[in-house]
Design brief:
With 188 residues, this protein is an alpha+beta fold. The chain has one helix at 2-35; strands spanning 46-55, 61-73, 78-88, 96-106, 112-122, 131-141, 146-157, 160-170, 175-185. It is built from one helix and nine strands, in the order αβββββββββ. β6 (131-141) and β7 (146-157) form a beta hairpin. The longest helix is centred in the first third of the chain and has 34 residues, at 2-35.
Length: 188
């Protein structure tokens, strides 16, 4: 009878342990499911060392955009870029290179919004150094070669410095218009 009692107690202990384990694992699975966040909206993609090449209507390269990171946000209909460089192709005779900390491209518009440390620099001209434009935000319309901002800008042409609020630059014709509060420093 002692062996029977031992078997009954052992079997009861095993069944109890199995039942408790099953209940415990079931509650953990329910808690884990409740804690798993759901992502709203569709998932996008991201790229490291991204390069975007835009072509004109004839299939020729128009400009290139490089970014250390590009992240699509489909729910917001935009592409977010980090450490951005924009360069026009040599056959377009555009001698400007644009660099920025951040950029955003709307998927239903044809412009690039740049922010952070934004610098637009021309190639050196004969007898002159490069023209450098610095600001904190800039909207670039790559197809029309136009860059504009309402933010404060600093323009450096050799040793000459001009500060203003707002600007519009036509990169194809090398025309720059400063909008307001223009101040300059000219070397003697």
């Amino acid at each position: 009878m002692y062996a029977n009692l031992k078997n009954v107690l052992g079997a009861t202990l095993l069944v109890s342990t199995a039942l408790l384990s099953w209940l415990w694992s079931r509650e953990g699975a329910q808690d884990q499911t409740a804690e798993t966040p759901t992502r709203p909206g569709p998932l996008g993609y991201y790229l490291s060392d991204a390069e975007i090449l835009e072509m004109d209507e004839n299939g020729r390269p128009l400009y290139q955009i490089w970014a250390s990171r590009a992240e699509e946000r489909p729910g917001e209909r935009r592409l977010v870029l980090s450490d951005v460089t924009v360069q026009y192709q040599p056959e377009n005779d555009i001698s400007w290179i644009l660099k920025a900390t951040r950029g955003e491209v709307s998927t239903n518009e044809s412009y690039l919004d740049l922010s952070g440390e934004v610098e637009l620099a021309s190639s050196p001209q004969e007898g002159l150094g490069p023209t450098i434009i610095r600001t904190v935000q800039l909207r670039l319309r790559p197809e029309s070669f136009v860059a504009e901002t309402g933010a404060p800008v600093s323009v450096f042409i050799g040793e000459t410095r001009l500060d203003a609020v707002g600007m519009r630059a036509d990169l194809k014709t090398d025309q720059l218009a400063l909008e307001s509060n223009v101040h300059g420093e000219f070397p003697p």
